[in-house]
Amino acid sequence: MTAFQPAAVPGQPPPADSVRPRESTSEAPTSVARLNDTIRGFVQTWGSVWVEGEITAFNLRGGNVFGRLKDLVTDATISFRIWSSTRDRLPGDLKVGDHVVACVKADYYVKSGDFGFSVSAMRHLGLGDQLERLERLRAQLRAEGLFDPARKKALPFLPHLIGLITGENSDAEKDVHRNAELRWPQVRFRTKYAAVQGDRCVPETIAALKALDADPEVDVIVIARGGGDPQTLLGFSDERMLRAVAAASTPVVSAIGHENDHPLLDDVADLRASTPTDAAKRVVPDVAEQRALVGQLRARLTMRLTQRVGHDIAQLEQLRSRPVLRTPDAMLTTRAHEIELLAARGRDRVDRALQQHERRTAELRATLRALSPASTLARGYAIAHLGDGTIVRDAAQAPASTPLVVTVGRGSFAAHSEGEVAEATPQPERRVSEPQLDWES
């Protein structure tokens, strides 16, 4: 076993019980306690140093703080402890992502063999480099509208198939399955495993997301992880993953970490669940609650139908109690009498109108008969016509040998004019009986 000699500090002697070179062999090894004491004595000679870095973990347990401080350029980190007596003197708003300068003193814990630093002072120097990059990315994505609630897709009420992206054999997978199946036993999952931290986290998660998004049977996709410090959750704030989630056509649920964890994926996803258990409760409905709701709706429907039927029966009884429906024959009898009276009045009016028009017709017939040329011809007069139908009104119109047509009371006959003759002494008119004319029949 190789041992080492602690460095000498000017003005201080080396520890009396420290392990010196060649003091231990395979035949005479030193003890673990002596080795740890030697390491602790060596570490304690360093004294306090001021160091600058970014807080990547800050966990409060029993009044003490256990955290990690990361170098601003490389990935080098140290563990630190802030005891409760010191914490009261430090700023109360220290948190993950803060850029700080701290006074630390190295310490080696003999019992556990752990190496760390105790903080005696710490103050802000501004946001850490990682947090600054995340804030710039957050502002950019917000300006592009990726956080806009209007673009977020609604989750189906009861998904037939849930796509799950998580670490293989992880507690997050078990929590999602167990709680979802408790709420809806027939729920089905299609799981794609991916690294949930490290360099493989982003490409594997994006590949799993694209595969599930292209599956037409998948109704919703859940990305789940069981929490962790912000350093291990950085992959879920990667711009490539965020844009892949925003471009997915299937609703995506972010279930990363615990209640206080808040990667950028929570803002881009269609729904943010505080834990994987919460994601299971948000994605599928509770069958017991749904059955109770169906029972309530059935009871309300039965009550409304009963009320409606009772109301309609009451209205029907009210209508049946009216006189017009209680004795419908009375209404018909009354209407029948009215119709008979109106029919009699109509017949009387028609008879009087016929009589009036018959009298008027007789009067017109008599007037027409009196003015008719037939009456004149019946008294012995005649009408002479030329061949073209012209009535002869002057003897000069019919010189000798002019053919004529003579119309008398009964028919017409042809004649020839022998010229104009002197007027003869008028003879007394002989009355003859008036013939029956055809147009009067």
From TrEMBL:
Lineage, highest ranks first: Bacteria, Bacillati, Actinomycetota, Actinomycetes, Micrococcales
Q: Which NCBIfam families match?
A: xseA (TIGR00237)
Q: Where does the record place the region Disordered?
A: 1-30, 418-441
Catalyzed reactions per annotation: Exonucleolytic cleavage in either 5'- to 3'- or 3'- to 5'-direction to yield nucleoside 5'-phosphates
Annotated family: Belongs to the XseA family.
Superkingdom of the organism of origin = Bacteria
HAMAP family per the record?
Answer: Exonuc_7_L (MF_00378)
Q: What does this protein do?
A: Bidirectionally degrades single-stranded DNA into large acid-insoluble oligonucleotides, which are then degraded further into small acid-soluble oligonucleotides.
Q: In what residue span(s) does the Exonuclease VII large subunit C-terminal domain sit?
A: 146-365
**Record key words, sorted:** Cytoplasm, Exonuclease, Hydrolase, Nuclease
On subunit structure and binding partners, the annotation says: Heterooligomer composed of large and small subunits.
Q: Where is the composition biased (Low complexity)?
A: 1-10
Q: Where in the cell is it found?
A: Cytoplasm
Q: What class of enzyme is it?
A: hydrolase
Q: Which organism is it from?
A: Microbacterium helvum
Report domain OB-fold nucleic acid binding positions. 31-123
Q: Which CDD domains match?
A: ExoVII_LU_OBF
- Its Enzyme Commission number(s) read 3.1.11.6
For this protein, the record's InterPro entries field holds:
Exonuc_VII_L, Exonuc_VII_lsu_C, OB-fold_nuc-bd_dom
What name goes with this protein?
Exodeoxyribonuclease 7 large subunit
